[in-house]
Amino acid sequence: MGNFRVCMGDESDIASSTPSGHLEALPEEAESAALRARALNAVAECCAERGYAATTIAHISERAGISNRQFNTMFRDKEDAYIAMSNMVLGELLTAATSAYSPDKPLVQVVRDAARGILGLMGSRPTFAKVAFLDYRTATPRALQLYQSGVRVLVSLLDQVRVDSLEQVPLPSSAARGAIGGAEALLRNEVAAGRAEQLPRILPEVVYSCLVPLMGQEEALRQARLAEDPGGGGS
Predict the structure, then answer these.
(1) How far apart, in whole angstroms, are the C-alpha atoms of residue 235 and residue 11?
(2) CB within 8 A of 36, min separation 6: which ones?
(3) pTM of the entire structure?
């Protein structure tokens, strides 16, 4: 399983920036940020391996190389640490999706590019994918709420395709949510089967799943074929 890394970077890079190679030599603020990054990475890794319920603070602290006391100075409890990690994960996922938007792009190309961004991000971080698709929904009610808020953003993006299609085919407002549900199922099955690193290869299937309820089979197939092009051009 790949390591889950946050924006702070690999701790080996941080350690090598000091003569002694120890975090203690860092300024206080940088040391605190590095410890928090290690703890959040450890939360994700432990929960991906064990599940939230079976993960303890001791597991997280041991994986992060910190003491329980240090953990308790950063987080109120295990759930607080999990929610902090979840916010980080969902923030990166939504950035990958929403950065695909441009007013100059056709909406279907935005959907293809957003799906490519999400699959690429999760494929490069299999621990990230496992936590996001196998653990969030059952971990805690707060984590489920965060997951659902992220889904709503993606539904809102996809719903613009439905709105644009209304002149041709009347579609219910629930169509976009159903389409996202189909894509979720595809991703979850791949991650559960241990193929998180291979997620980018199912981009055409995800694009098809997202668009077929909104645009029909013929157009969804055309968009899926366009998704196979690494350049992602065309509409």
Answers:
(1) 42
(2) 74
(3) 0.79
